[in-house]
Amino acid sequence: xxxxxxxxALRPRSNWEAxxxxxxxxxxxxxxxxxxxxxxxxxxxxxxxxxxALIDQVWxxxxxxxxxxxVFDRVPLYILSRAVFGATPGVGEAVRAQRSWGWRxxxxxxxxxxxxxxxxxxxxxxxxxxxxxxxRRERVRVLQRAASGTSMLTTLLAVNMEFMLSFSVLALxxxxxxxxxxxxxxxxxxxxxxxxxxxxxxxxxxxxxxIAMSLIEPFYVGAGFGLYLNRRTxxxxxxxxxxxxxxxxxxxxxxxxxxxxxxGGLLLVxxxxxxxxxxxxxVDAVGGAAAETAAEDIGDAPPxxxxxxxxxxxxxxxxxxxxxxxxxxxxxxxxxxxxxxVWELRDKTRKEADMTLDKSSMRLWIESFGAVLxxxxxxxxxxxxxxxxxxxxxxxxxxLPWISDRFERERKPDALEVHDIALPDPLPDDVxxxxxxxxxxxxxxxxxxxxxxxxxxxxxxxxxxxLPPGATEAECLRRSRRLADTGYADLFAQIVRxxxxxxxxxxxxxxxxxxxxxxxxxxxxxxxx
Length: 529
Prior knowledge:
Layout: H1 15-28, H2 30-54, H3 58-67, H4 69-72, H5 74-83, H6 91-97, H7 106-109, H8 119-129, H9 133-144, H10 148-174, H11 182-195, H12 199-236, H13 238-279, H14 281-298, H15 306-315, H16 318-330, H17 348-394, H18 396-406, H19 431-440, H20 444-463, H21 473-480, H22 486-504, H23 511-522
């Protein structure tokens, strides 16, 4: 581990800021990470689905691929752990490393540690540090002390995002279904994928799950790696160590430049001292004699009088010095002292009683003020109610007809407008005969429009209510599902689809299809709803 090669700014971060750092590392090396991820995981997905499809148990492939997540997490962790120290591996190197790197710790992560909620934080302990036994337990305990909550929430977020992404990919297919066919398509979609899924739909679901996992899992591993780096920085002071290393490097360069100057200065000082010693031997002799005399005088003196002897011999003003020291310590600036007088009540119980009385009066004042506010608010609400009633009475001619129209049960059906085709009103008694006549006269759109209008009126009769103005074909189909007569509901759906194909797509049905619809129209039916 070379701290000098770090490509990130080392400093203590909060836990969520550390996860952002890990996600930023994943984005920086996204190309390498996802290419290596696809090369490693996609063959495993294909082989698992093929093997499970051969025995008609595709759910086993789903379970195994989800269970092997810790094995696949080695891919982004290998790339990030090298890239953060400035040695980003290539795609080929990262793929080849998966054959031997980190397999020793995978047994634990595929058995009793598989459901550990802090997997992204603790994987680097096994894969990068290689600790086992008590040392690993102590390391895990220290790392989780301040980051376990964030790592668990990161796991929860990743699981939810992966699930929602899978669901979004599946729901995307329903967005392209026309609204009038949405109900049938959604029902068929549910039957195909969940209730009685064929093998191909189960394999397709596994492919969607792999796509969701491939998009989310590298970010999950990167967030845990960012937490791991942050905890190592906090516990081992990587930022301080790196700063000292940089300072030492700068000082080493400065010392190398100043060393010749220091050596020359020492030579000059040594030469000057030698010349001074050679020029003043007499002074040294006198000084030596004085020292010997002083030594003889104080040789037998007690230790407590040594200071006085030296003061008398060399200073001559020892007493004056002591007096100056005492005056200095007596200065108020060095020894500040102050006297403060405070008045206190002799009867403290009286003060407590006064405080209780003040609190009671304050509470009574607040209660009185609240009662006044409540009285004013209540009367204002009553005034607003009276004003609303007056407005309702004043403008009853505007809103009362509207209300009566809304509650009208029997209303004359609105004439159905079918583009620019002129239809007979009222409809003929023999609808199949009129439709055949128009079809034989070369007016197929008019024939289908007449049949569609007759089908809508029969639907109104069967339900006992009329369609709202401007009802579309999709609304008519939804209302037809309320019929107890499922035979007519199916016939109505066929008539609507034939009419839509002719009116909007210019695709006319064959004469055989029209005769089939008219035969079903003339068959006995039940009108109960």
